[in-house]
Amino acid sequence: MASPITPRGRAPQRQARVAALLRRPKLWLVPSVLATLVALVLSLLYMGGILDPSVSLHRLPVAVVDADTGAPLPGQRQNLGAQVTQAIVAASPVGSVDWKQVSQAQAQDLLASGKVYGALVIPADFTASVGALTTAHATTRPTISVLTNPGVGSLGSSLASQINQNAAHQASLTIGKELTSSPATAGVDATTRLLLADPVAVTTQVGHPIGQHSGLGLSAFYYTLLLVLSGFIGGNLIHNGVDTALGYADSEIGPWHTRRPTVPINRTRTLVLKMWMTAGISVLTTTMVMVACVAALGMDATHIPLLWIFSYCACLAVGLGVQAINAAFGGIGQLVSMFVFIALSLPSSGATVPLEAVPPFYRFLGAFEPMRQLSAGVRSILYFGARADAGLLRAWIMIAVGFALALIFGFSMTRYYDRKGLHRLTPQPAAEEEPAQA
């Protein structure tokens, strides 16, 4: 009996059974190991850096301003402003806070450049106000001001604010002990004594305000994340699209499977093609990110031309890096680039949890991981007047370094493969477009 013929004139092939395939250990091995390892590493990376920021504090920069001009109280060599400042610096655990003792103008400059997470300000009349509490001429309650800096991120600003408030409260209690033990307050009533026990008021205000539509200081992080994702996803789409168009990868959309004729081209020229396409398509993706964020959603943003140029260069640097990694590592290149640009970069960005509040491993990654560099540049443009010393200069330098590394690494690997005759695929003829067998 003749074999049955399919409508296309070919004998049907026997289909593999799912149950039989599931019993093959080798089929399970690679995906099981990779999926398990990725889940484990991602869990350790993302949760390891955020569980206890206060314990991981390492030299969190905070300004302290002693503007007190009052004369020392009787029996003391220093005014209270100097005493409080010294006590605050000495009381902090060694290495946890980097107290910067500066003038009020210098503190404002540090806040405006994002170099400190907050400031503690002792006013000029502090000693005089405290001294007046023991007399009948007291008119105002002594005040210490806590200045926040939301542009460095809500968590970082909150940590600095909490540190400053605790320091000011401890200073108030210390001063209160001296006042209540003074002979001058021996005859005061119970209400006054209660006031003297904790005499200093602590006020909190924004030291360097940002726009209302800035996500409480998180818009810079999410905007940077969009740039990195656009470069990463766009680079991989271009990589797969070019390989499909040149016949080095199959295309399967729904039930339709297509294999194009293989175009003779070596690895180096293929990488050149992909990088040129990345440079061109990044113009569109960058523009769409800005249109969506700034125009459609109303994100507060200044220096729009500079923001676009920086965004384009940032997106392009990531895209070129993706192409270089894919060219070097082949099939697992997308997994490698995911770790380089996403998995390792997010927890070490310092945009949500300050690097000064994460374990040392993340601070090490933050020295070179791209999202840390890019978020500093975006933050400078959005919140700190595009100041070079607010992170923008370092961001430009690291973008240039990223360009150079992508080009050197990518073309070094492809030229090596080409010289060794390691061709990507044996050319195959085109196949007819047909529904894939289920």
From TrEMBL:
Sorted alphabetically, which keywords does the UniProt record give? Cell membrane, Membrane, Transmembrane, Transmembrane helix
Q: Name one GO cellular component term.
A: plasma membrane
Membrane topology listed for this record: Multi-pass membrane protein
Which positions, given as ranges, span the membrane? 27-51, 220-238, 276-299, 305-328, 335-355, 393-414
InterPro entries, per this entry? DUF3533 (IPR022703), T7SS_ABC-Transporter (IPR051328)
Q: Which residues form the DUF3533 domain?
A: 34-400
Q: Where in the cell is it found?
A: Cell membrane
**Family the UniProt entry places it in:** Belongs to the ABC-2 integral membrane protein family.
What is the protein's given name?
A: DUF3533 domain-containing protein
